[in-house]
Amino acid sequence: MIPSIHKRGSETIGLIRYLYGPGTEEEHIDPHLVAAFDPLTPDPGRDPKATYEQLERLLDQPVNVLPASKRPEKHVWHLSVRAAPEDPILSDEDWADIARRMVAATGIAPDGDEQACRWAAVRHADDHIHIIATLVRDDGRRPRRHNEARRAQAECRRIEADYGLRRVAPGDGTAAKRPTSAELHKAEREGREQPAREELRETVRRAVAGATSEEEFFDRLTAAGLLIRKRIAPSGDLLGYKVALPDNRNGEREPVFYAGSTLSPDLSLPRIRKRFSSDSDAADRSDRAPSDLASDPAPSGPATARRRAATAVWQAVLVVDDGEDGQVAAHIAAAGEVLDALAKTSAAHTRHQLREAAFVFERATRSHIKAECGHDRALRQAARDLVYSGPALGRGEDGATTAMAIDMLFFLVTAAAHWHAKKNHAQQATAARQAAEHLRTAYQAAADAPLGVLYQRGRRLSQPLRQKQAAYLRAAVPELAEQILAEPGWHALAATLADTESAGHDPAALLAEAAGRRELQTAGSVSDVLVWRLRRMADLPGHPTAAVVPSTGSRPASSRPATQPEQPGPRSARL
Fold first, then answer.
1. What's the count of helices (H) and strands (E) in the chain, helices before strands?
2. 65-99 as b/e, with b when 16 or more CB fall inside 10 Å?
3. d(Cα 62, Cα 536) in Å, to the nearest integer?
4. CB neighbours (10 Å) of residue 247?
5. Furthest CA-CA distance within the chain
6. What is the structure's pLDDT at 354?
7. What residues contact 151, with CB distance under 8 A and at least 6 apart?
8. Each residue's pLDDT tens digit, 9-25
């Protein structure tokens, strides 16, 4: 259950007309009172003799009896309370009880206070109510509303428990604004996959991922097809921006613009500029000219960009595990840019899950811990590389390196979830865990083909060579060796160990290093994890060429009955 305290207003009649009217998108159905400060309060929704003006005069009476000089300029208080989509439809009596609890919790009308503010709760949809109140008590004093938003959130958590509703993680005021009911209804009526606000937020996030200047950022917005309106100071300085979808119009057929700051707190122009300036600062500290950042040569293709991204992401995992809070916050924010860039350039069979992962992880990128930008330069450069290397086809080497990058991102997102949980950032931790589940599914789609190729190679190794690889395994990770040998993915790992030796590496030493970089006990398939770590560390192709790899058949399914003579192939996901 989500409470939203809206900006205070100066006209009670205007809000009453909105609450009882059809709504901006005609989404209001059967507007009526469910509760009020006085049981005899007129209800223009159900009583044909009652008028909006009568309700206004009754609510505003304590304001109007004050001398004009002592009346507050903005005396209209407005709170909406919304249930989750999966919650059962509550009755009017339930919503009436919720309204009384909310006005008591926020200090508008404490229990037993006969001189409290006047208020009324209007229901015009199944899933929410609006509470309107005037901020002058009957005794002429102002209500005590200290920390009203936090108290409203706390009361909603108690209401959820009492009514058996979906338990919402407590917020901290850093979340992006949710779409309004009008925006949701409009999107549904127009057949949009998501409300315009969310589509714009996703598009702007992708535009800023890895960008190094305002010019580049706005060029990307234009290329994405957005309408842009800039706010210019008399001096000519750029103060802010707004964006709109060309086909999202209001009743006057004008584009509906949203300021960057209303899409998300970190998409305001000043906050975006901090990313650009921190890139230049980091370049300065490393004795590089700021312009070098924008002129770094782009990778030769999607596969190279994904391999570089995997390396940067793995280094970020180590920072999130052990770094200072400000550095960790910066790396988590930059991880969102990498996710956005990977989703933007992904192949069709992974695109949906990567987009969903980026969408939900956005909530995990912000908290009250200030990010020390500049430390995240490697991740932001990785995002830039992904964008400028172009889209991947999802086959061959770029398909394999996509699986490698997703594998590393899973660890980074999981580490972010653990860090947020330790800091009691409930919403951010939940968002990171949700993103990890989407990455798990995307990994399954991306990894199946390249691991299938490696599996077939491992199956075709000679018996002495397989025994040799098993000996390397037992020498490097004796505590995990028997578990790995029993996994379907062992054959892919054996092929990879053979590749590392052919490339001139010491397989046992490299395997010990790969296994020691982070714990493996929680991995679904330890062999899959080690395959990608080894291939990245030894700079091996993610997807061996057809000249080296037998082309007969793909990886057998893990569900193959154990009674068949063939051993089951590795699972399509290790996560």
1. 21, 8
2. eeeeeeeeeebbbbbbbbbeeebeebeeeebbbbb
3. 71
4. 10
5. 98
6. 96
7. 105, 106, 107
8. 999 999 999 999 987 66
Give me the residue label for tokens 């850093």. 174
Coil, helix or strand for 533?
helix
Task: Compute the distance between CA of residue 389 and CA of residue 384 in angstroms, rounded to an integer.
Answer: 8
What are the residue ranges spanned by the domains of the chain?
2-163, 175-294
Q: What are phi and psi of 5, to 5 degrees?
A: -90, 115
Strand order from edge to edge, sheet including 2-5: 2-5, 76-82, 128-134, 119-125, 32-36
Q: DSSP states of 424-491 as a string?
A: T-HHHHHHHHHHHHHHHHHHHHHHHHHHHHHHHHHHTS-HHHHHHHHHHHHHH-TTTHHHHHTSTTHH
pLDDT > 60? residue 273: yes
Cβ atoms of 168 and 160 within 8 Å: the answer is: yes
199's tokens: 């589509």
Q: Which residues pair with 4 in a beta bridge?
A: 80
Query: Tokens 């989703």 map to which residue?
Result: 343
Q: Give the global pTM.
A: 0.75
CATH of the domain spanning 2-163: 3.30.930
pLDDT greater than 50 at residue 261: yes
Positive or negative, the CA dihedral 550, 552, 558, 560 is negative
- In the chain, the amino acid numbered 56 is E
pLDDT for the residue numbered 280: 56
Within a 13 Å sphere around the CA of 72, how many CA atoms are in the beta-carbon half? Answer: 20
Give the separation between CA 497 and CA 494, rounded to whole angstroms: 5
- Out of 99-108, 287-296, 386-395, 465-474, least confident range: 287-296
d(CA 134, CA 84): 28
> Where are any strands of DSSP class E within 17-118?
32-36, 76-82
Orientation of helix 196-208 relative to helix 214-223, angle to 10°: 130
Place of tokens 């428990």: 161
Residue pointed to by tokens 């193959």: 560
CA–CA gap between residue 550 and residue 456 (Å, rounded):
7
The conformation of residue 503, written as its DSSP 8-state character, comes to T
Lookup result for tokens 């409470």: 3
**131: phi then psi, degrees, rounded to nearest 5:** -115, 125
Would you call 232 helix, strand, or coil by DSSP?
strand
pLDDT band at 298 (very low <50, low <70, confident <90, very high): low
Closest CA to 267 of 368, 339, 197, 329: 197
Give 175's pLDDT tier (boundaries 50, 70, 90). confident
Measured in residues, the chain has a length of 575
Position 355, amino acid = R
* Residue-averaged pLDDT of the chain: 87
Q: How far is CA 189 from the centre of its chain?
A: 25
- Please check whether residue 231 is in contact with residue 238, taking contact to mean a CB–CB distance below 8 angstroms: yes
Which residue(s) pair with 134 in the sheet?
Answer: 76
Task: Give the separation between CA 231 and CA 239, rounded to whole angstroms.
Answer: 5
Task: Using alpha carbons, list the distances in angstroms from residue 355 to 99, 198, 573.
Answer: 37, 12, 19
